[in-house]
Amino acid sequence: MRRVETALVAVALALTAAGLALIPLTSQWFTAQLSARFSQPAVVGIDQAKAAGLAEAARSHVSDFVPAELPRSVDGRSGFDETSVSHLTDVRRVISGARLAAGLLAGALTLWMALCTARGDYGRIARGLRAGAWACFGLVAAAAVFATVSFDAFFAWFHSLFFAPGTWVFPSDSLLIALFPQGFWIAAGIAWGALVLLTGGALVLASRAVSRTGERRINSASAQTKA
Question: What's this model's pTM, rounded to 2 decimal places?
């Protein structure tokens, strides 16, 4: 039972890290930086400033509490058509679900750690945190290997988990692809992996700190008993 509990805690920690890593990646600053670097506004006949504004509108639509309106035409050209808006709305549902799931898992983990602390079972917490760190490292390693072997295959597989077939594929000259080309998603994936790895490192440090706390409590109790 102890191994099962540790495994469940590890999975919960890794999923929480993966979900919470989406928060900074859907921030206005992050999207603006990647848009300036990777967007291809010339493909759809707009300038970089216009592309930045449209990328921000798309980000807001999928991430903000009050979504931005998406223009159907841009400078007399096709903008966010019905298919694009439908896909971005689907993305909004996925991101909202990921945030909710991460929040619920974080709450459950906090409760678990509080119960363990009340019982003085610091070793249990340390094992869970350490296993969670390895789960984070394993998750990023698996994603990196898959994406390195074939990013297109990885991208297609990832989308198939959350979106209906055909709803996320767009022409290479569409506005959505011009704003968010492959380079954008590769950079975002690297940033996501880095954040999850940092979380794993923090879990390692936390597990060591908890272990030391448990050892001090045991030594203190032992000294009081001898006294």
Answer: 0.90
